[in-house]
Amino acid sequence: MLLTLRTTHVPATDLGYLLAKNPARAQSFDLGFGTAHVFYPEADENACTAALLLDVDPVGLVRGRGHGDSGALDQYVNDRPYAASSFLSVALSRVLRSAMAGISRERAELAATPIPLEARLAVLPVRGGDAVLRRLFEPLGYEVEAAPQPLDPAHPEWGDSRYFTVTLRATVRLADLLTHLYVLVPVMDGAKHYWVGDEEVEKLLRHGEGWLAAHPDRTLIAARYLKRRRSLVDQALARLVEPEPDVAEEGAVEAAVEGAEAAEPSAASVRDAEEGALESRISLHQQRLEKVMEVLRESGAARVLDLGCGEGRLLRLLVAEPRFTEIVGMDVSHRALEVAADRLKLDRMAPRVRDRLRLIHGALTYRDRRLAGYDAAAVVEVIEHLDAARLAAFERVLWEYARPGTVVLTTPNAEYNVRWPSLPAGRFRHKDHRFEWTRAEFQAWADGVCARFGYTLRFLPVGPVDEEVGAPTQMAVFARADTPVAENAGSREGDG
Ligand code: SAH
Question: Whole-model pTM?
Answer without folding.
Answer: 0.51
